[in-house]
Amino acid sequence: MSELSVLRWIAALTGISAAIMVSLHLSQKFTAWGFVIFTLSSITWTVAGWMEDEPSLMTQNIVLTIINLVGIYRWFDFGRN
Predict the structure, then answer these.
(1) Residue 20, Cβ neighbours under 10 Å: how many?
(2) What is the CA angle 18-37-77, rounded to 5?
(3) Share in percent of the chain as helix, strand, coil (round to 5)
(4) How crowded is the C-beta side of 75, counted as CA atoms within 13 Å?
(5) For 18-45, how does the pLDDT look when each residue is reduced to its tens digit (9 = 90+)?
(6) Cα separation of 38 and 33, whole Å?
(7) Contact between 61 and 43 (Cβ < 8 Å)
(8) What is the DSSP string of 11-52?
(9) pTM over 0.85
(10) CA distance from start to end of the chain
(11) Quick one: which of 1, 32, 62, 72 is 20 to 30 A from 79 by CA?
């Protein structure tokens, strides 16, 4: 199995896991960690897009990384008491 193939599988499986975690919303922290895993998935997809010279895949996942970082900020309750 090539490095790119492994990377794509990691991206896919972390994305699936994160979607399940966020959709279940078992607790605030659980959902927050779902966004962390989503971020890892998006970064991994961005790298795969770069390796495959797929600008659309890179662009989509750069935007999703930003969205996921907002989710992390909101769900981990940074800066609030």
Answers:
(1) 11
(2) 100
(3) 85, 0, 15
(4) 20
(5) 999 999 999 999 999 999 999 999 999 9
(6) 9
(7) yes
(8) HHHHHHHHHHHHHH--SHHHHHHHHHHHHHHHHHHHHHHHHT
(9) yes
(10) 48
(11) 62
Given this model, what pLDDT does residue 79 score?
A: 62
CA dihedral 48, 59, 75, 26 (to 10 degrees): -50
pLDDT in tens, 38-70: 999 999 999 999 999 999 999 999 999 999 999
Q: Which two tokens stand for residue 8?
A: 């794509």
Q: Residue 7: which pLDDT band, with cuts at 50, 70 and 90?
A: very high
How far apart, in whole angstroms, are the C-alpha atoms of residue 67 and residue 51?
Answer: 23
